[in-house]
Every structure is written in structure tokens, then in C-alpha cells.
Amino acid sequence: MFKNIGSNWLLMLATMASAYFLLPFTLRCLGNDQYGTWLLITSFTGYLGLLVLGVPMASVRYITHDASIGDYPAMNKTIATCAGMYLLIGAASLLIGVGLLVIFEWAYDVPTGLRNTARVAYLIVVSTTSVSFFAQMPHGIMASYHDFVGRNMVQTGSILVKALFTVVLLTWKPSLMVLAFVLLVPVILESGIMWMLISRKYPEVKLDLSLFEWKTMRQIFSFSVFVLVLNIGIQLSFQTDSLVIGKLLNINQIPYYAVANTIMVYAMQFVIGIAAVVMPMATKLQAQGHQDQLRRLFFKWSKITFSLTLLGSLFLLVFGPELIRAWIGSSFANPAGIVLQVLMVSALVFLPLRGVALPILMGIGRPRSATVAFLLAGLLNLILSVVLARPLGLLGVAVGTAIPNVFFGVVLLFICAKELNFGIREYLLRVVVLPLAGAVPVAASLVWCDRGLHLRGFPGLTLAFLVSAVVFISVWCGFVYRGDRDVDVGQLFQGLRQRVLS
Description:
Elements: H1 2-45, H2 55-68, H3 72-107, H4 115-135, H5 137-144, H6 148-172, H7 176-201, H8 214-238, H9 241-248, H10 254-287, H11 291-327, H12 330-355, H13 357-363, H14 368-392, H15 394-420, H16 424-452, H17 457-480, H18 489-501
């Protein structure tokens, strides 16, 4: 699992490196009004992604199950059925997206000089969304085979292509239409390469649409409907804030919030790198009847995820505004920095459970309560953000997002405790207490770097992170994980040593 999760994290680092360069570059090329309009378009059309109905996660679950027991005919029926559903969903997405253009232009006051280019960019984004549904099929197959390394290598190449296209084309012509076109090419290229890899590595996989089966579709839909509810909650929680700000505040305020939210989303993607491996592993363990190993999987990765979240959250709570100042500019440091700090407080509760508890529940086929809770959290986010936006501005939108995140994390913990048969006290003792105690010297080192050494700029940020990382590793190896029954540090280092020597 460490190899697969490590490759997910490397992909995440490549994505973050690309965003580190491209976000300020794109913002400089387009300006606040154009970039704010672009964020409106992507947030609005992002709801078309809900039409996927949870098929990607459902496909991973059922393909993993069939592959684990060697039932390849059933697996190919699942693949054909999912592919057919993707094609139907893509066609529906195109029709609905074009129809929603009228509502988009009526609801939002796009600057007059940008309306024509915004309309064309909107239609290109809708087309890309429609194509991207079927392009998810090879992702699901490779995840089902636990081939995250191969999949992530292809995705990393796609990130590089997208970055190159963005720089070259926006330098040539900085417009919304060009930025929209940049999204389309990597999707097609990435999907084609993955299908080639699958045909070579997994000859038992056959994409034959004639195997499409209505019975299989109903089975997939019975699971994917809960994933749809989950995706609605995700959309409401992390993609609706731009729409609220654009409607209640001003379009040129969206980039300030988006910068902070981008860092939060990348932090979430980092733990999803764990979730992507945990879910199929949970499905496999349940299919093979290994319930004790399933509980051990939960506690082990919950502790690791909570520990990493602590390190990242503490760094961003202390140095978040300075990071934004060095990355985007001084004008963004205060408004975006405060938003980031509020979001990262909620991340301490939300991210560890989102990264481990949720994928385990999805993997063992117990999604109902968790997905309903996420939907309620998303609706609460929308309501609070709307209520608090005008009196508190961007801070109100951030608070409106943070409170539901904490609510969802707590509810998810109780649901998982019931399904895996453990107590909340056991969770706190095995996962939370020692890492919180170990966080004290880490926090002290960060405050010392900030107020004592006054570290600033990227060199200072790098040094501060390295200092805190050294303290973190020392405390965790010598105190938090010493003699731990869930995370065997000695065995981990021995495994890493063997891989290096080999």
C-alpha cells in the first residue's frame, strides 16, 4: 500500500507544483475580472459532473470485487456497462450544459467586454466535461488492479502537457477561450495512453459494449446513487463558494477566496491519495472475509492521516498568509490568509476521517449514512455561506464552510465506529491523543521560526517547514509511534531500506 499511496502523493506534488506556477501566471495573464469569470464558469459547469452518478467509485468497487475472485466475465460485463453509462451520461451532459448557458448569463453579471468570450469558453468547458466522463473508465480499471503507479505516471505526464499548453497559449493569447481549450487536450491524450497500457498489462480486460447489461447497470446504480449524493455534498462544500461570492459580493473577490480554497482542496487531495488505495483494499478484505485486518487498516491509516494533517495544518496556520504573499502577492496575503487559517482549523477534524473512514465505508458497501451526512453538510455550508457572506465578507464564507466540515467529520466517526464495532474512546486513544501531545513541540518550532527568526519568503518558508519536519519526525519516531501496535516504525524503515538496497 505504501508504494501506491506514495505514487499518489508524488502525483499530488506534481499537481501542486503545476498549480504553484500556473495559478499566479494565469491570474497575471487574465487579470482579476477574467480570472474571476473563469472561476464562475468552472464552478457553474462543475455541477454537470454530478451526472456521473457515482459510476467511477462504483466501477472501482465492483471491478475490484470481480478481479479479486477471478471472475473475469463478470468483470467485463461491469466494464461494458460502466462504459455505456459514461457515453449516455456524456451525451446528456452536453445537452443540459448547453441549455444551462441561458441561466448562467441571466444569473451572473459578467463584464460586458467578456461576455462573448465567456460564452465560447463556457461551451468548450461543457464539451470537455462531456468527454471526460468516458475518459474516467481506464482510471477505474487501473485502480481496481491497484496499478496506481502506472496510472499516476500517465497523469503526471498529462499535468506537464497541460502546464506547457497553458504557458505557450496564454502567452500567445491571454483569453478565456484559450484557457478552456487547454483543458480538453490532456483529457483525450491521457485516456488514450491508459487504454494502451491496459491492453498490454491486463489482456483479460475487454471493452465490448455488446456486453452491456441492464441488470448490471441496476446493480451499479444501487451503489452509485449514494456516491451521487456524496458528490453533491462535495460540490456544495467546495465548489459553490465562488458562486455565492460572485452573486452576493463581487466577481473580483472570487480569486482571493479561490487561492485559499485551492490550498485546502490540495490538502484534501493529499489525503484522498490515501483514500484511493484504502477503498479497493477495504473491498478486497471484506470480499475475503478478513474483518480484523479491515479494522487494523482503519486504525493504522487514520493515525497516519491525522498525523500528516497535523503537520500540514500547523504549518499553514502559522505561515499560511506568508505562503500566499510569497506565492501570489502582498495584496492576497491578508484576505486569502485569514480564509486559509479558518479552513485549516476545520481540516484537523475533517481531513483524517474523509481520507480513511469514508473510503472504508464506501469500500464495504455501507455508504448510505455517510453520503446523507455529507449532503446535509453541503447544504449547511450553502446556507451559512449565504447568511454570513454580506455581514462578514470572505471570512463569513470561510466560516460557513468550516462549521459543516467539522460536523461531517464528527458524524462520520460515529458511523464508522458503529460499522467497524469500535468505541469513540478507543479511536481517541489510538489515533488522536498521542499525536496531539506530539504536536506541541512542532507548533513551538513553527512559532519560533515565525516570531523568533522572522523567516520570510520562499527560502524562509522552506527552512521553517524543514525545521518543523525534523521536529515532527523526531517526536513521532521517539514518542508518538514508539511501540505503537498500529504503525510499526521499525518495520517501515526496514522495508524502505530493503527497497533502496534492491
